[in-house]
Design a protein that fits this description.
Elements: H1 3-27, E1 33-38, E2 41-47, E3 53-59
């Protein structure tokens, strides 16, 4: 498998993990936050005071 295909596969896994984490947070309100990393970015899923889930992506 070449480098481009590996990066593409890793990115697909990153996106899939974010949405699976989001589903987990919907099912279990006790989860306050989750973090997912891919290359130079990190995505945070966090709950606010009203228990709404927010996505935040930051560059490292």
């Amino acid at each position: 498998m070449n480098k481009r295909q590996r990066k593409k596969q890793a990115y697909k896994q990153y996106i899939r993990a974010i949405f699976e984490g989001y589903e987990k947070m919907l099912e279990d309100p006790s989860i306050a936050e989750l973090h997912f990393s891919y290359l130079k970015e990190t995505t945070y899923l966090e709950r606010d005071d009203q228990a709404k889930i927010h996505f935040t992506t930051k560059e490292k």
